[in-house]
Amino acid sequence: MSEKIGEYQALARKYRPQTFADVVGQDHVLSALCNTIDAKRIHHAYLLTGTRGIGKTTIARIIAKSLECETGITSKPCLQCDACKAIAAGNYPDVIEIDAASQTKVDDTRQLLENTQYPPLTGRYKIYIIDEVHMLTNNSFNALLKTLEEPPSYVKFILATTDPHKIPTTVLSRCLQFQLKALSVDEIKNRIISILATEGVPCEIEAAQLIARAAKGSMRDALSLCDQAIALGSGALERKSVITMLGTAGDGLIAEIIDLLAPETEANLAGVLSKFAQISPNFKAVLDDLAIAFHDLALYQMIGDNALGVFTLPQDILNTYAKVFSPESVQLYYQIVLEGIKEYSAAPDGKSAFEMTLLRLLAFSPEKKKNG
């Protein structure tokens, strides 16, 4: 990491993928895009959809590089020519990026589309990247539709949106659509570990796991959380600082809650509550983690360890407790925690809501009732 004041660049920006090979996940989309680009079957309009922070705008820029690279149309842009460098810097004259959320008026759209009649200044194509395209008004969509129906051969559109259902079907039908998926916890965790190794930042594996889980499929969110956690950890990514930042309890305390319900253990509720009192977590986040834990246990009991990468809890916790509880008990615990989450906003405070949920889990535990 740079030590010079003012030169630090956020991880999400510094490690933004520059080629298709750099993109994490999205193999189904990348394969199709690479094939169509290498075969020179260039569509006039692409639509990239998916949740935030998973690479829509990044992939749009890589497509632009692939089409404008001075070495020729290729799925592996050189990154060295003037076109590739200018697109990466955001100042290439023939790649126009528009944030539809801030330009929703039909006059803005018409003015933009009027420029499509002019050929590109230096590049092969004039490429319009329109982010959050679903924010356009109906009149703006109608104006866009006219150009999409009969675009000049040198004009290409790359549209990106988090909400494709708000886009008129007449526009959708004229685009080549690609659905990007949320990244898995393992994909994000491994990317975090790789980046921090490159940066020379000490990284605890469990800390990377916690951030990957909290990012909910978004690589951008994960790297932003990393920046915050590294600042809290005085230059290192540590489990303790990540737990403090996220307000979570960590897998260890979640396992202790589950252990309270096990038939062969004594319910040391006071000890567990004392540990929670010491860290003062976000109790809503703890309940969410507990619900995910019971979901993972139920799924693990049904499908086992089949390497699908669908589990959030560590393998050793799943192995331990999947054998302890009946599937019916896990379903009951899951429902109790969901009810606790629903009642959270009505409780006097988060701590009370959490404690009442724990008491309810113990009160209705079939395993505890069997043992008297």
Automatic annotation (TrEMBL):
Family annotation (Pfam families): DNA_pol3_delta2, DNA_pol3_gamma3, DNAX_ATPase_lid
EC main group: transferase
GO cellular component labels: DNA polymerase III complex
Keyword Nucleotidyltransferase: yes
Residue stretches making up the AAA+ ATPase domain: 42-186
Similarity comment: family membership: Belongs to the DnaX/STICHEL family.
Function, as annotated: DNA polymerase III is a complex, multichain enzyme responsible for most of the replicative synthesis in bacteria. This DNA polymerase also exhibits 3' to 5' exonuclease activity.
Quaternary state and interactors: DNA polymerase III contains a core (composed of alpha, epsilon and theta chains) that associates with a tau subunit. This core dimerizes to form the POLIII' complex. PolIII' associates with the gamma complex (composed of gamma, delta, delta', psi and chi chains) and with the beta chain to form the complete DNA polymerase III complex.
Protein name, per record: DNA polymerase III subunit gamma/tau
Annotated organism of origin: Succinatimonas hippei (strain DSM 22608 / JCM 16073 / KCTC 15190 / YIT 12066)
Organism lineage string: Bacteria, Pseudomonadati, Pseudomonadota, Gammaproteobacteria, Aeromonadales
Gene that this polypeptide is encoded by: dnaX
